[in-house]
Write a structure and sequence with these properties.
Two copies of one chain form a homodimer.
Chain A: E1 8-13, E2 24-29, E3 37-47, H1 49-55, E4 73-80, E5 92-95, E6 98-100, H2 106-109, E7 120-121, E8 125-126, E9 132-133, E10 140-144, E11 148-150, H3 157-161, H4 163-176, E12 184-188, H5 192-203, E13 207-212, H6 218-224, E14 228-231, E15 244-249, H7 258-262, E16 265-273, H8 286-290, E17 295-298, H9 304-316, E18 323-327, H10 331-340, E19 346-350
Parallel strand pairs in A: 12-13, 12-15, 13-14, 15-16, 16-17, 18-19
Antiparallel strand pairs in A: 1-2, 3-4, 3-10, 3-19, 4-5, 5-11, 6-7, 8-9
Helix pairs in contact in A: 4-5, 4-9
Pfam family, one (chains A, B): ADH_N
GO molecular function (chains A, B): oxidoreductase activity, acting on the CH-OH group of donors, NAD or NADP as acceptor; zinc ion binding
InterPro entries (chains A, B): ADH-like_C (IPR013149), ADH-like_N (IPR013154), ADH_Zn_CS (IPR002328), CAD-like (IPR047109), D-isomer_DH_CS1 (IPR029752), ER (IPR020843), GroES-like_sf (IPR011032), NAD(P)-bd_dom_sf (IPR036291)
Chain lengths: 354, 354
């Protein structure tokens, strides 16, 4: 894998949200290689639900003229800006759903750069000054050093890729809610995010219970390491009063049995949405939270220190995501599978443009 | 003040929720003086919004045959069960919105007895076994030792009374959310609870900002020690991005500008409802919480250690609640004022039955 020629990359681009499954190979200029940026030659890239929401226009009009999605990238460092010190050319690295932040605000300085008010996202985003950033269904991406994570040797690239958004999105609320050996973790919904919540919950030493609408994924959940599986039939909450130290909600339905799930949280604990129902959350009363002094919250990816710790744990605990590989040219098929909910449990696109 | 004669108390009772302003003096038998219980001769009793909700049937049908409300009691210990060691006859004590718990569960043992799944409330409640407990618009109440708090000499009875529910209800979420010197605290709604959130926020060393629908209570808020006052007109949130370490919501409207208020919370912080809108909370999206990784929660009174610390701080910092005194026979007038929202900011009924 080589550095880009004349600053140009090639990627699988969508040019019209109305035809969002029509990926075409496009050549485009990368953003400048600023002093704190790194160029990564893409080896593989995970497919995230966000990719579908963005290219279809479901999350609103685009910021960039066309969109090359992909924000779960693993590849090799092929260029570094002159201020970069943490990696060198040739290193294997990962980049997730954020490639830039201001670096100056309170949050960039206190391990909350994932909450920087002026983030640069993994695609469909502009750098300050206006340069477009495109994503990882491509030959190359550029990112600020802070968002480029060395991948431990023990973690294969295709296994690391979807950890960088999907994994980190659940790992951050797990550790921010104090999950450790013996913690009781609930996971609602077993999709791409939910499967990572099980894997990393278990890797952190927690006892994980999966809540799902039916028993369809029970065998998978148990194979991933979950201790228990609960189909959310009426009355499901009865045997789980105040059992959990945190519940990570990975479902994106807006008709979840939230009041019932809240009774499953121990006093003072939190129900964290990482799934993003497009409609609002309904039927919440403060009374339903007061009974055990619990809270409903949400979370946005994770910070660098969490990403590094996650990768370290993945290496040590041999965390194995359940992934399906496809060549990058099958991006449309991969997006279709996200739309159908048929992915088990994350798709990784492998490089075929070089 | 004497011990009850023949185990009988007298109180201002409501006998029919349809005529909930028709208080009549009634004589009734107290629950037994169990070994861990204390009899308190009532000196004064605060009037809480819950009193109105309960006697009017707004919170559902009654548990007891008639209701003597009042769960912000200060008085003298006149009898103690044989296992009681923390107070003696003659001590001045307070009792709040909880008078009993199981004593055996995990929560009773980890300073969360206010979240015991089998609590005995301040009135309209039964002890295990079925004995009725009546409240503090009366000559005497009985409570478990755990819920009887010595009142520091520096705090007058009429000032301590409404701290025991109103004060503790906001003090607990303040301290559980880490409020200390220099913390930034938002308080939504300046009523009985909100005024205590300001007073105790300030006493803990925080900078307090009050959010209210109009400027009507601005002067009061500043006099209570608030640093700033914000009328929630459209766009009000603009100057307060991520300013607060916690927001205590004391308003009971279900049409609060919650999304806007959430943007005023710092990353990872909490919006705590202690006001209880009868309708649900509307228009919440997980997206509105994800932006700063914040949460919406609630809280239920507080535990003994928090009550004792609150009273200690009230003594040390000379916390002065804004109260109006009335003789107990004016209970109907006091309830009417709660209903009208005209109380500034808490009414205390003083003993007139003995």
């Amino acid at each position: 894998m080589a550095a880009p020629t004349n600053n140009m990359a090639r990627g699988y681009a969508v040019t019209d949200p109305k035809n969002y499954l029509d990926f075409q190979v496009k050549e485009y200029e990368l953003e400048p290689l600023a002093d704190d940026r790194i160029t990564v030659a893409v080896e593989c890239c995970g497919v995230c639900g966000s990719d579908h929401h963005t290219i279809s226009g479901g999350w609103g009009p685009w910021e960039t003229k066309f969109v090359v999605t992909g924000h779960e990238v693993v590849g090799k460092v092929v260029e570094i800006g002159k201020d970069v010190t943490s990696v060198k050319v040739g290193d294997r690295v990962g980049v997730g759903a954020q490639v830039g932040s201001c670096g100056d605000c309170k949050w960039c300085k206190n391990d909350n750069e994932n909450y920087c008010p002026t983030p640069v996202h993994g695609y469909n985003t502009l750098w300050p000054g206006g340069a477009e950033h495109q994503g990882g269904y491509s030959t190359h991406i550029r990112a600020q050093e802070l968002f480029v994570f060395p991948i431990p040797d023990a973690v294969p690239s295709v296994e690391a890729a979807s950890m960088l958004c999907g994994g980190l999105t659940v790992f951050s609320p797990l550790v921010r809610n104090g999950v450790k050996k013996g913690s009781k973790v609930g996971v609602v919904g077993l999709g791409g995010l939910g499967h990572y919540a099980v894997l990393f919950g278990v890797a952190l030493g927690a006892e994980v219970t999966v809540f799902s609408r039916s028993d369809a994924k029970k065998a998978d959940a148990l194979k991933m390491g979950a201790k228990a599986f609960v189909a959310t039939d009426p009355g499901f909450e009865k045997g789980h009063f105040r059992e959990f130290d945190v519940i990570i909600c990975c479902a994106s339905s807006s008709s979840l049995p939230i009041d019932e799930l809240l009774t499953c949280l121990d006093v003072g604990c939190k129900f964290v949405f990482v799934g993003m129902p497009e409609e609002g959350i309904k039927n919440i009363t403060s009374q339903s939270m007061a009974g055990s002094g619990v809270a409903l919250g949400s979370s946005h990816i994770g910070c660098r220190t969490e990403a590094l710790r996650m990768l370290e744990i993945a290496a040590e605990q041999k965390v194995k995501p359940w992934i399906e590989l496809m060549p990058m040219k099958d991006a449309a098929k991969a997006i279709q599978a996200v739309e159908d909910g048929s992915v088990r449990y994350r798709t990784i696109l492998t490089q075929d443009l070089v």
